[in-house]
Amino acid sequence: xxxxxxxxxxxxxxxxxxxxxxxxxxxxxxxxxxxxxxxxxxxxxxxxxxxxxxxxxxxxxxxxxxxxxxxxxxxxxxxxxxxxxxxxxxxxxxxxxxxxxxxxxxxxxxxxxxxxxxxxxxxxxxxxxxxxxxxxxxxxxxxxxxxxxxxxxxxxxxxxxxxxxxxxxxxxxxxxxxxxxxxxxxxxxxxxxxxxxxxxxxxxxxxxxxxxxxxxxxxxxxxxxxxxxxxxxxxxxxx
Length: 239
Prior knowledge:
The protein is mainly beta. It has a single domain (15-236), classed as Acetoacetate decarboxylase-like, CATH 2.40.400. Helix content is 7%, strand content 53%. It is built from 3 helices and 13 strands, in the order βαβββββββαβββαββ. Strands 1, 2, 3, 4, 5, 6, 7, 8, 9, 10, 11, 12 and 13 form a 13-stranded mixed beta sheet that branches. β7 (131-138) and β8 form a beta hairpin. 37% of the residues are buried.
């Protein structure tokens, strides 16, 4: 059961950070359209009979590795965007599976060591009046997006809102092994959001067809106390 709060504490984080000014854009897809993009060992998680794919741009701030005191500055803030779907292990534990990760900080590409599909690019996040704008373009391959949203009033999250936004681990695959990275942070403060502009080729680049319907959109001012645990290998397997 997906919960609004972390299932367990990340007592010894590998990375601390803040995820700010985040928008969640989710589309429903037929599960069979998403299944080929997910490795063996993981099942596509469904809500009301659909698989969901999320485009989530945000600002990564105050990134610091273990041992760096809070009084010292972390990395400069940078934009990141992930395209993800939702999966479960055979034991039922749910999490994220990243179809792509766009990032403006080339240092983050080191995450490819555990199979995280990072793509360096030019990204931006900006606010003007009552709108928030996101832009991203990969340095290679040509995939890009432009999103302009108009955040609305805060909401009390319903079951679907929690299911779409609250996951406490991510899975990656490298060298025939599944890896798990746990996460802990405070609950997302969610608001409705209206889309003014949405142009993207990330879903096509990932191998997805057209979605089943219009997107479900949320905005959040973000969470400031993110703790990512060390990644650990789980199982051997092959596609």
